[in-house]
Amino acid sequence: MVFNSLHSSTKKSALRAVALLLSATLVSACGESVVSQSNEEPDPVVVDIPIAFVKRTLPIDEEGMRVVNDLRNPAEFVPGAALYIKARAAVSSAEINITDRAFSDGDTAQDAAPLYDVKDIEVSYDGTKLLFAMRAPEIEGADEDEQPTWNIWEYDISTDVLRRVIASDIVAEAGEDTSPVYLPDGRIVFSSTRQRTNQAILIDEGKAQYSALEESLNVEASVLHVMDANGSDITQISFNQSHDIDPLVMPNGKILFTRWDQAAGDKGMHLYQMNPDGSELEIVYGRHSHELNGDNVHFVKSRITPDGDVLAAVREYTRDTLGGNYYRIDVQQYIDSNTPIASSDSLSEPGQTAALFDNIDTHAPISAGGYVGALYPLFDGSNRQLFAWSQCRVYDPEQEVAEGETRTILPCSDALLANENIEAAPLLYGLWMYDPQTNTQQVIATPQEGVAYTELVSMEQRGFPADYTPGENYDDTLASEGLGRIHIRSVYDFAGDDVTPSGIEVMANPSLTAASERPVRFVRVVKSVSIPDEDVIDVERSDFGPSRNLLMRDIIGYSTVEPDGSVLLDLPANIPLSFEFLDVRGKRVLPRHDNWVQLVPGEVKTCNGCHTQDSTLPHGRLDAEYPSINLGAPSTGVAHPGANPALFADMGETMAQTKSRVLGATYPLADILYEDVWSNPQNTPLSDAFAYAYGDMQSAIPISQSCAQNWTSLCRITINYPDHIQPLFEVDRRSFDDAGMLVSDTTCISCHTPTDSDGVTQVPAAQLDLTNQVSLDNPDQLTGYRELLFTDAEVELVDGVLLDRLVEAVDGNGNPIFERDEDGELILDPEGNPIVVMVTVPVAPSARASSALASERFFTLFETGSHANWLSDAELKLMAEWLDLGAQYYNNPFDAPQD
After folding, report:
1. For each successive 10 residues of the chain (899 residues), what is the average pLDDT?
2. Per-residue 3-state assignment (H helix, E strand, C coil) for 541-574
3. pTM attached to this predicted model
4. Going by fewer Cβ within 10 Å, which terminus of the chain is more open, N or C?
5. Residue ranges per structural domain of the chain
């Protein structure tokens, strides 16, 4: 879709001035001020460069209230915007509308033009083109799924051509496309709900194709994609389960972007980076920097400065002011506001400072410094910045407004803001230029009542970022198999701290530390399950289980953690992954890794170790971390200290690297298998081998028949309570003697049931009913599920009926509590005695969702208690993995029954 011309000779003349000015810009010497080629008289302090900006009517709802913008909805549509350019960054330069032509012809009156929306402006590195997101006007009477979507558009100033990048209507409308940015090779990176690769993987998993919801389940997740300049070859490059938005290309060629981190709960929007192919994903800044002056803030709308700092809007999720405040962030030396990178840990200044005015206070009801809607640095060596700003204004509190009289608006002062009856005046955004050398600002687009300038860029030439080429951390063989590889140097490394009791050297030495003494034995690789919109399938709240934060999850498989805590695995590429580290029984013993990791085909990724969510030490960004505690093998050609000489090491190798090189790389398996390959048989007894295998189970297993025979990168362990956990309790565990007489019956539901074998009502053993009857507490779940995981009331048998046992309620001093009326007076029985309040007796759940290790009440019985050996090792492993995942009722939305 291409639009070739403006609709008036005046605009054409102005456009020619812009094109001439661009030509002058392109031939100017590097680092020099741009020489003016305009016929207009230039302002002496203004650089003669074209600028582009979004201008819109102030968004007001039907009740006259300002429309609230929500960062969590990138596809939000607020009609009434248009994209303009000016030939010069000066008030005297005419504003030229370049987007109306897409939806109206030259004869359409401006006030009759259809209302559309524009945002996310970006400029090409040579300054000749604009890239932006635009959404067509709403179609009156059409359903929501028939409305237009956000599309990527490009405007070429030199040719006056406006075009939608994806020409095909069908392809263009297949997703909400926003936040476009040019890559140095001419391709475009953008955020989109298309989820191209994720949808293909869903087909491989035997599911329908759909765009998944972000993890709060409100809107479809918008993640990063790359396409050619003509809109072809659209490829997904990020696989977050919530939004990845606002990309920009840094001078080193990496993509900096905002990631909404919601794995197992909302942790905010931080800054991440990756290569243009999606490799080397890592956090850059902000995980522990969300508290600011009483607000919970997030980092969005980033711009890179000429000296490598980042300018970012730092604001709450929701605002109705069209702006807030911008901060300058030193991402080169800081990973959080108060946390410098390890190599700069002597720094004490904060990593972020206000980019413009110190008196902007977005926490206050009215900000004395007003609000900044956009900020853009100039690349002419002056350190000047363009910005959209609404000055602080209030209504005159002393004015007595007569009927029909206009209210007086005053600029803010300390005295006015201290008045408790003060009322903010409407927002009034204009465009300005700030010069830090003189500490002055100059208006370049005069504010207008009812109108706001909300985004802007300068169309000047700036240096091209570096081109990305895959380096040494790339493997062609892995790429051909659709796999990546991850190497964790030591799970005992917590942000540079050695957490082993006697040091990593002792833990790693098999002659000094037996396998049974190592706290971490296995790794479980977990994958997020994409949740569809209700139009695809209706997923109920009860399908997720006790904690919706964990949503649904699959298991990719298991592998061993080597004695030094190292792990090296080949894993499926292009899916969101996480890791759980387990003890000898297959229970998670280290904190859950609540961040999604991704690998692209062929990528070889290294992590130093682990971290906790509360730790503020640098982690997750290799150049920011402290050195690894695991220095690897001390020499080449011999074994690791105390280890099997058959596994000969190269200097610096972790034990996982050595094992992979000698025995071959490992892909996770469905079963937990252990064989001692590290002990030196000449001087150290080998530890016993063991296996927790699904093949040893008597009930349904959570893998497909084909995967049970051949475990591949497309296989998943998918555990549903009704299909895989409830059947454990129903397995016939009776034993008989040679004469056929019953010797014992350890079938779970023989005792944990409200009726005995003759149908007579009884109190379930240990107050735990594990039957498959529909729960009275939640008819969408089985009784066994509710009783296993939720606090219940103790029951007793009264005249052949099970009733909740009631006891007298007492206060903190053990005194009985009596019933009282609404006036606080005692309520008396017919005999005139006060009535004691009776309450039920709570029964704690036997298991705890999200932690098998914390479910001692359940597991102790089967491991060392009265139920020892009643469940097999494979069955206990199934229980442990299900609990660690979150004890979801279903882990496949398509397995849940539909109404």
Report:
1. 50 45 35 31 58 96 92 97 95 95 74 87 97 97 94 97 97 98 98 96 93 97 98 98 98 97 95 97 97 94 97 97 97 96 94 95 95 96 95 94 91 96 96 92 95 96 91 91 98 94 97 97 98 94 92 98 98 98 98 95 95 86 94 96 97 98 96 98 95 97 97 97 98 94 95 94 96 95 97 95 96 94 92 95 96 96 95 98 98 92
2. HHHCCCCHHHCCEEEEEEEECCCCCCEEEEEECC
3. 0.92
4. C
5. 476-521+561-692, 723-895
